[in-house]
């Protein structure tokens, strides 16, 4: 059976690398490059593809807010939904079914003869915060920094620019793909810079593809939930956290984004150690309904072995 997988394109992006790590390069996998993360959600929801791979967070720069906001918009009703009986919000059927971790090594690519010839630099907006040391040391304020849809798209723009005055911050894969010279390599602030990607889909996947044969890492699971609380209820968030503590559940991350329900009300993202099939996890989530206005389980999946190898 041929699997159809969407990803944030074009080819040569770090998301493309995450896709390869998860699904390989066999002929029974068809890949579909998407121009935006939102397009990945859309083609998955319409079942044009079986899975979608999207960036989620970076070890240096934190959240990929586009993905967080899309998860919010797809799973949590907006104020418009709540005020329109004819347009009731229905959460999608797809869930987070896996994850991948990609070591990020940024390179400065350009056809310019020297750095002095560069007038414009392109890259994905998430990248700028990961290369601040390089920028402060080598790039003057006279050089414009422009956002692109992806690091690979940035390389494509530079490749098509025949003036020799543009540059990009991108991957070695993109350098090879577009045959662009690498003027500076591994310019990221941290050598441990890693991005985590989510695999969205309808069916479970093998979370240890292409892993080491002697993999000794524990078989761990992660469950991700999203919820909203009554902004005027004192201690509502504390009650949620206390529920997990009482059930001996370790929370690995808590993040928030504006809820779009009303001003200064937030939606919370929580990731915890354990499977939804574990009695203490399921009991905790079931008991949260009395504290939460809305709650959805985004997914419960096996931890990728690269989680340990990238630390």
TrEMBL record:
Any one GO MF annotation of this record: prephenate dehydratase activity
GO terms for biological process, alphabetical: L-phenylalanine biosynthetic process
EC number of this enzyme: 4.2.1.51
Start and end residues of each ACT domain: 225-306
Gene3D superfamilies per UniProt: 3.30.70.260, Periplasmic binding protein-like II
Involved pathway(s): Amino-acid biosynthesis; L-phenylalanine biosynthesis; phenylpyruvate from prephenate: step 1/1
Organism: Debaryomyces hansenii (strain ATCC 36239 / CBS 767 / BCRC 21394 / JCM 1990 / NBRC 0083 / IGC 2968) (Yeast)
Protein name per UniProt: prephenate dehydratase
GO cellular component, as recorded: cytoplasm
TM region(s), chain numbering: none
Keyword Lyase: yes
Swiss-Prot/TrEMBL keywords: Amino-acid biosynthesis, Aromatic amino acid biosynthesis, Lyase, Phenylalanine biosynthesis
UniProt-listed CDD domains: ACT_CM-PDT (cd04905), PBP2_PDT_like (cd13532)
Domain Prephenate dehydratase: 4-202
